C-alpha cells in the first residue's frame, strides 16, 4: 500500500476539521483509494491545540523548515489564511518539490501566477478546491467535469456570511446593522466583517472561478465589487412584494471569444429562480455550458468538515494522480493581451426614489428614462396622502452606464427628493 505523508499548516477551524477527517477515515481510504494517508506533522504555534486533538508531541512543529525538510511529508496542506506567512510557507513547500493543497482564496487569487510558476519548476502539485465555496466541488466540476463545454455564465451565491444576513433580513424584516450584530454574536460573521460584507471574499473566489471557467486569467482588479452594507430592509420588502429575493451574487459571463464580465454585487432574483431558494449560510453556483446546459451545485461553503472535505479530496486526488494538473490557460500575472473586460454590463434595474406626489413628476422621470432608451417594465407608487412618496420602478434590460446617467438626471429633477436605491435585477 502506498504511504502518503501529509503536513497540516495551521490547526484553526479548517485545519482541525481536516485532521479529524484524515484520522477518522484512514482505514476507509486504505480500502477505497489504495493509499495509506498519515498526518506526519502539523505546524502550529499553539501546542495545546494539537495535543487536544491527540497529536503526538514529536509531530508538532513550530517552523516551516522542519516541515519541508521532512522526507516523509509528500503533501503540505496550508490552512492558515491571509497572505503572509502563508505565501512564504507555500513557496517553501513548492520549492522543495512537495505538493500543496490550500484553502486560501486571497493568497491564491492574488499570487496564483507566482505559486503555479514555483510548482511547475519542481513538478509539484498545487490544488485549491477548498479556496472556493468550501465543501462544494466547484473547481473539480469546472476542470474535470465540464471541460467539454464553453461555459458562458457562472452565477453564484459564494459567501455564506452575507447570505445568512440577507436571509434573516428577508425573513424577519430586520435591518442590516441589527442582523449583523446578531450574526457576529452567533459566530456567523467575523468581528471585522469587511471581507465578507464588502464583497472581498466573494470577489477573490469569483476571480479564481471565472479564470477556470473561461480559461483565461480574470485578475482581482477586473472584478467589479459592491457589498451589502447599504442594503435597506425596505428594499428587501418592496422586492418581496414584486416577486424578488435579494442575494449577493457573483456573476461571470463569457461571450465565447474575448469578452468577459466579472462582478459581485447585491441583486434581486425572481423567486422561482433556483438561486432564490439558497438560504442561510448555504452557497450555490449556477453554470451554463454550451453542451450540458444548466447545472447547479449547492452546499456548505464554509465550516470545519465541509471545507476539510474539499481539502482531503484534493489530497487524495494528488496522491492518486502521477502528474500534477495546472491551469488550462497561460497563467500570467495580468490578463492576457486582447481579453476585454466589460464594465458597461447589461442588466435589469430596480430603482427606488422619493418624489413629490404631484402632477407631472413621473412624466419627467419617464422622459429621462426614454432619453437613455431605458424601458420601464413595472412601476409602483407607495404611500397615500403624503406630500412625498416612494416610487419603485423596474426596468427592462439596459446598460449600467445608461442607468447611472439617467439616475443622476432623475436625482436633480425638481419634484424628486432623492434616489434612494439602485439594485440590479438578474436571472
Ligand atoms: N467567510 C466565508 C463565507 C467562508 O462567509 O462564506 C470562507 O470563504
Comma- or semicolon-separated keywords:
427 residues, alpha/beta, Rossmann fold, Dihydrodipicolinate Reductase, domain 2, Alpha-Beta Plaits, 37% helix, binds L-homoserine
What does this structure look like?
The chain has helices at residues 13-24, 26-33, 47-52, 64-68, 86-95, 105-122, 138-145, 160-172, 176-185, 194-197, 200-214, 233-242, 304-320, 361-371, 400-411; strands spanning 2-9, 35-43, 60-61, 75-78, 99-102, 126-127, 151-157, 224-225, 244-254, 259-270, 282-289, 293-300, 340-341, 346-356, 376-381, 388-395, 398-399, 416-426. It has 427 residues and is of the alpha/beta class. The strands form 2 sheets. Strands 7, 8, 9, 10, 11, 12, 13, 14, 15, 16, 17 and 18 form a 12-stranded mixed sheet that branches. A 6-stranded parallel sheet has the order 3-2-1-4-5-6, with helices on both faces. Helix 6 links the parallel strand 5 and strand 6. L-homoserine (HSE) is lined by residues 159-161, 196, 201, 301-302.
Amino acid at each position: 500500500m502506498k504511504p502518503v505523508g501529509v503536513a497540516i499548516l495551521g490547526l484553526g477551524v479548517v485545519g482541525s476539521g481536516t485532521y479529524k477527517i484524515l484520522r477518522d477515515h484512514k482505514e476507509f481510504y486504505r480500502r477505497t483509494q489504495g493509499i495509506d494517508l498519515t498526518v506526519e506533522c502539523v505546524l502550529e504555534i499553539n501546542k495545546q491545540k494539537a495535543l487536544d486533538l491527540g497529536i503526538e508531541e514529536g509531530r508538532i512543529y513550530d517552523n516551516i523548515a522542519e516541515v519541508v525538510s521532512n522526507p516523509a511529508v509528500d503533501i503540505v496542506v496550508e490552512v492558515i489564511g491571509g497572505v503572509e506567512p502563508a505565501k512564504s510557507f507555500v513557496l517553501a513547500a513548492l520549492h522543495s518539490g512537495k505538493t500543496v493543497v490550500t484553502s486560501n482564496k486571497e493568497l491564491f487569487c492574488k499570487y496564483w501566477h507566482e505559486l503555479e510558476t514555483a510548482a511547475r519548476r519542481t513538478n509539484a502539485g498545487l490544488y485549491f478546491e477548498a479556496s472556493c465555496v468550501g465543501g462544494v466541488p466547484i473547481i473539480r466540476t469546472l476542470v474535470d467535469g465540464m471541460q467539454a463545454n464553453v461555459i458562458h455564465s457562472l452565477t453564484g451565491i459564494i459567501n455564506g456570511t452575507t447570505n445568512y444576513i440577507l436571509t434573516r433580513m428577508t425573513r424577519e424584516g430586520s435591518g442590516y446593522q441589527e442582523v449583523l450584530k446578531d450574526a457576529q454574536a452567533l459566530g456567523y460573521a467575523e468581528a471585522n466583517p469587511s471581507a465578507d460584507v464588502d464583497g472581498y471574499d466573494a470577489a477573490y473566489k469569483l476571480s479564481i472561478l471565472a479564470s477556470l471557467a473561461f480559461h483565461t486569467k480574470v485578475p482581482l482588479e477586473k472584478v467589479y465589487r459592491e457589498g451589502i452594507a447599504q442594503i435597506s430592509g425596505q428594499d428587501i420588502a418592496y422586492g418581496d412584494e414584486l416577486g424578488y429575493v435579494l442575494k449577493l451574487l457573483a456573476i461571470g459571463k463569457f461571450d465565447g471569444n474575448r469578452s468577459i464580465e466579472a462582478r459581485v454585487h447585491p441583486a434581486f432574483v425572481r423567486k422561482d429562480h433556483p438561486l432564490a431558494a439558497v438560504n442561510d449560510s448555504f452557497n450555490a453556483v449556477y453554470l451554463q455550458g454550451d453542451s450540458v446546459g444548466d447545472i447547479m451545485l449547492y452546499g456548505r461553503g464554509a465550516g470545519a468538515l465541509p471545507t476539510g472535505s474539499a481539502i482531503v479530496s484534493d489530497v487524495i486526488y494528488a496522491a492518486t494522480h502521477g502528474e500534477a494538473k495546472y491551469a488550462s490557460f497561460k497563467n500570467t500575472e495580468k490578463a492576457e493581451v486582447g481579453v476585454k473586460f466589460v464594465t458597461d454590463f447589461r442588466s435589469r434595474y430596480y430603482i427606488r426614489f422619493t418624489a413629490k406626489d404631484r402632477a407631472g413628476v413621473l412624466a419627467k422621470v419617464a422622459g429621462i428614462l426614454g432619453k437613455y432608451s431605458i424601458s420601464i417594465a413595472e412601476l409602483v407608487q407607495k404611500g397615500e396622502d403624503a406630500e412625498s412618496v416612494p416610487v419603485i420602478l423596474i426596468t427592462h434590460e439596459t446598460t449600467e452606464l445608461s442607468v447611472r446617467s439617467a439616475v443622476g438626471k432623475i436625482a436633480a429633477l425638481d419634484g424628486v427628493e432623492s434616489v434612494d436605491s439602485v439594485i440590479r435585477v438578474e436571472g
